[in-house]
Structures are given as C-alpha cells and as structure tokens.
Design goal:
By secondary structure, the protein is an alpha/beta fold. The protein has helices at residues 12-16, 19-29, 44-61, 65-78, 87-101, 111-116, 146-159, 183-192, 211-223, 234-237, 249-263, 290-294, 350-367, 371-379, 387-394, 405-419, 508-515; strands spanning 124-126, 130-131, 135-140, 174-178, 201-204, 228-232, 267-273, 298-304, 319-325, 331-337, 344-349, 385-386, 423-428, 431-436, 461-463, 479-483, 496-497. The strands form 4 sheets. A 9-stranded mixed sheet has the order 5-4-6-7-3-8-9-10-11, sandwiched between helices. Strands 12-14-13 form a 3-stranded antiparallel sheet. Strands 15-16-17 form a 3-stranded antiparallel sheet, with no helix packed on it.
C-alpha cells in the first residue's frame, strides 16, 4: 500500500481496521480537477436557423396565438435575437409558416401530377357570392346594414332560398355569434325572417379569441356538419387580444380561426368595419391591417349610395354592394330592401344606376331657368309674339335695332324655352314669333306666310293642310283664301282671314278659341334685317 496523502505517520492499528483503504477510496472518487464547461453559445446563423425551426413547430402545434407568441418571444431572448427580431417580424414569420403548411407556397405540378389528381372545383354556399369552406368578410361603415345583410345570408342558407338573384343557397346549419349586437335587435332580425325558431340555427351571444371559446366553436361545428359560422364582429370578439386591428398579429389570429373552422368542416362569415373614406370600396375600404383582407377569399362591402354631389346619402334606403374575391366574378350592385322584412333585392348595376342619376342631374340642371328666362316665360301667352314685343313686355330697351346685349339675351332665352319645349316658335315672314307650348297636339299645324314689311303687309294668308284634306286638291297643295274688302262696306279697316283644317270634336273648342284671336300685325322686321334691307330704318 502506498503512502496516503495527508498522513505522515503510519499506524498499524489503523491499517488493521481498514482505515487507510477507506481513505484511499474516497480520494480516488474525487475528480482530479474542476470542470470549467458552461453554457454553449450558438453562432448567429445557427441561432436564426434554430428560431426558424421553432416557428414552424409552434405554428403547426400551438393553436393558441397568445401562448405561441409568448414562447417565441422567450426563445428569441434565450438565443440573443431580441435585438434583431421585433414582435411584428415574429408575427410575419408565423404567417409565412402557416402559408407553407396550408400549401400556399411555390410547388410545381407536372402533367402526370395534374392527371393523377381530382379536378379541383369551387364549392359554393351561394353561387358567385359566398364560397363554402373558406372565409368571407362583410365590411361596411357603422349602421350601414352589415348585420342585416349577414343575417339575410344566414336565413337564405337555413331555408335554401334565393339571395339577391345569385341563386338558391345550399341548405346548411348556421352558428350565429352576435357579440356586437343587443339581444333585442337579434330577435327582431331573426323573427322578421322567420328563422328565430328554426332548428338549424345555433346562437351564441358572445365569443372571444380564447382557447376555450375556440374549442367550443369547433365542437359546435362538429355537431352541425358543414355549418355556416357568422361572427359579428371582428372588432368586438378581438377586444381581449393584445394586438389591435392595425397590427399584423391580427392576421395570425384570423388565419388561426379560419383554419380551425375549415378543418372542422365549416364556413366562416365574418363582419368587419370599414374606414371613413367615402371614395373607397371593396378591399381598400376595410379597416385595419391588410392581412385581414388577405385571409379572406371573398370581401363584400356595403356602402351608402352617393347623392347628386357624390357624398354618402344616409337618407336613401338603397345601398351599394361591392364584391371582390378570388373565386367567382366580382360585382358592383345597388340593392334595396325587399318586399319581405329583412330581405334585399337587386335594383341595378351601379354604373347604370349612376348614369341614371347623372342624367337626371343634367336634366334638372337643363330645366333650371335663369332670371331673364323666367321673365320671358311669364310674359308669353297663347298669342304669338315677336322678340320685340317680348322685350317691350318685360321692359327691355329695344336699342340698336335689337342688337344690344339685353335684346339678344331675350332672343337666346326664347330659343332655350323652345328647346325645353316650354314655348313654341314659328316663322312669320322674315321673323320668328313665339308663344307658350300647347298641351294638345291633335290640331294640325297652321303655317302662315306673311310677306316682308316693305310690302306693307297683305291680307292674303296661306294655309298648308298637311293631311286629312278631302276634295279636288291633293293634300300637298297649298290653298290661298283671300277676301278683299269692299269699299264702303266697313271691311276696309279689318281684313278677314280664313283658316281651314280638319278638327276632331275634342279639339274643336280649343281651335275655335285660337281662331278668334286677332292676327299679329306684321312689324318692320328690324331684328331680321341689315341696315340697308328695311326702308323703315333707312
């Protein structure tokens, strides 16, 4: 036995008792030197790769977004990546991992792959409106009617009815969550559509993005296969989340909920709010981060119809409905409340409706008269009047032989009234005459030809009978009826004019009243001649 360290004096009695053997075993068990090994620190590249791997695992296994976010933040701190990654970037990596898991990534399919697979097709809950097995968002400003539209869709799905002319909906059970609405309003809407006591309707007053509520929703879908889940609204059910609608994390929560509902065999219809910009429609109108719209297949936005000035008209019961989607064609419609309470009907395509509004606006603008046009219209009567007579009646000075500014305005006003069919015009010799437009068109138009003013007038008038003439002359022949006054008979001061036209019994009193009027004296015609044409102005 060798020397024992720390024992300078050997004792036989101790050796006999095995003291030295015990001491030697203790010394041999002690390590010769202390281990200096501590924590291993990964390099930056390995740390990033480790974090990416953990993101993929957490996105696949952990459905609770809050728990997954906490674990990834703790991992980033443990790997010394907190200074390199913020929570927005972590949320973005989770979204990318979910896209890869759902197959939303680049993957080549050869001809053999395509021939071997079942031909894909879109399954519709409501054809060209709401696809089955996906997310549809109904957006709109507060109180525009989002919930009523969603409940109308739910009623169509419950009863297999038509929705806005898109077609008959597939019959499915409905799970309705009205977290953003009072119970009384919900009852009124459901009762109006006669689905309050429908056995296929399941109703929940509240919902939150928690593990227990999500699991309860999934259990309800499994108990009602193929159910349509209607949630009102995203802003209300996400109040307990640490992220707001403007944060990218809201997209991760929405993707999780969407995927959970789809995996359970349901369809998600989510109500969301739009921003206050009146000129935005469709996807651009949705409030919050763009990942909200990115998670949806279809976006339906409901808007107030614009008024004549392009501003939202809240007094108009009609609404503008815009559809943008990956599946099916988009549309831009104007809808209105249907005959049955709670239902909607299609009015027109928005472009056509807008064109009608613009045409009506232009017509209203065209019918609007200026002050001088109003005066001219009030002056006109059933008697024919020249422009000069109209000017004298409204107090306009007939200056510069009718070429001054005011008489010209009167002439333009008369022409405008004729264009608006508020007045009638006819040519009397070399000048136009005007009167109020007649309501009856059954009379035959009488055309009077008056010679120019330098002939000092003539009692001879030509009456052109366009149709209905019976006699020797053909209808196109103009007849002259002249009665020369007899000297001394009292007729020299008042010539007689004969008018001949076929009349119906209904138009006879009106024509008789017009025929008894005195003929318009022929004026000088200064408004239609140049300086050298009229001797009266020479």
């Amino acid at each position: 036995m060798g020397a024992i360290p720390g024992d300078e004096h050997f004792s036989p009695s101790k050796a006999k008792d095995g003291y030295y053997n015990k001491l030697l075993k203790i010394q041999l068990k002690k390590p010769k030197h202390k281990s200096k090994r501590g924590k291993r620190k990964l390099g930056f590249s390995k740390a990033v790769a480790c974090f990416d791997r953990c993101v993929v695992i957490q996105a696949k296994r952990e459905r609770n977004s809050l728990r997954r976010r906490a674990r990834l933040l703790n991992l980033a701190k443990a790997l010394d990546l907190s200074s390199c990654l913020n929570r927005q970037e972590i949320a973005q990596r989770v979204l990318e991992a979910k896209d890869q898991q759902q197959g939303h990534c680049f993957q080549l399919l050869s001809a053999a792959d395509r021939l071997g697979m079942k031909a894909p097709s879109v399954v519709w809950l409501i054809r060209d409106a709401v696809p089955a097995g996906d997310l549809t968002i109904i957006g709109g400003r507060p109180k525009v009617g989002k919930t009523r539209l969603a409940v109308s869709i739910a009623a169509a799905v419950l009863k297999g009815g038509d929705f806005l002319g898109f077609g008959v909906a597939a019959t499915r059970p409905v799970v309705l969550v009205t977290d953003d609405q009072a119970d009384g309003d919900t009852y009124s809407m459901l009762q109006a559509l006669q689905v309050w006591d429908h056995p296929g309707l399941k109703w929940s007053r509240h919902f939150r993005f928690t593990e227990s509520d999500i699991q309860g929703l999934l259990d309800a879908i499994k108990a009602n296969p193929g159910a349509l889940v209607v949630i009102d609204s995203l802003r209300s059910v996400s109040r307990s989340l640490p992220a707001g609608e403007n944060d990218p994390e809201i997209g991760a929560y929405l993707y999780d909920l969407k995927q959970a509902v789809i995996d359970a065999g349901g369809t998600l219809l989510l109500i969301h709010h739009c921003n206050k910009a009146a000129d935005l429609v469709g996807v651009e109108a949705l409030s919050g981060h763009n990942t909200i719209a990115g998670a949806a297949n279809t976006v339906l936005t409901l808007h107030y119809c614009p008024d004549a000035n392009g501003k939202p008209d809240k007094t108009n019961p009609q609404r503008r409905l815009v559809r943008e989607a990956r599946s099916g064609e988009g549309c831009d419609l104007v809808i209105d409340r249907g005959a049955t309470a709670g239902t909607y009907r299609r009015v027109a395509v928005f472009d056509q409706w807008q064109q009608q509004i613009n045409d009506a606006k232009e017509a209203s603008k065209a019918d609007r008269l200026s002050e001088i046009q109003e005066k001219v219209l009030e002056t006109l009567s059933n008697a024919w009047m020249t422009r000069r007579q109209v000017c004298e009646a409204i107090g306009v000075d007939w200056g510069d032989r009718g070429r001054a500014k005011e008489p010209k305005q009167v002439g333009r006003s008369l022409q405008r009234l004729v264009g608006l069919k508020k007045a009638e015009s006819r040519r009397a010799g070399v000048e136009d005459t005007y009167r109020l437009a007649l309501c009856s068109k059954s009379m035959e138009t009488l055309v009077t030809l008056v010679p120019s003013s330098n002939s000092n007038g003539s009692p001879c008038h030509q009456i052109d009978q366009a149709s209905g003439d019976s006699g020797d002359n053909p209808p196109s022949t103009a007849r002259h009826h002249c009665h020369q006054p007899d000297v001394g008979s009292g007729d020299s001061e008042k010539p007689h004019y004969h008018r001949r036209a076929p009349l119906s019994p209904l138009s006879l009193p009106l024509f008789t009243a017009l025929a008894d009027q005195q003929p318009i004296p022929v004026g000088s015609g200064a408004d239609a001649f140049d300086d050298g044409d009229d001797p009266a102005w020479g």
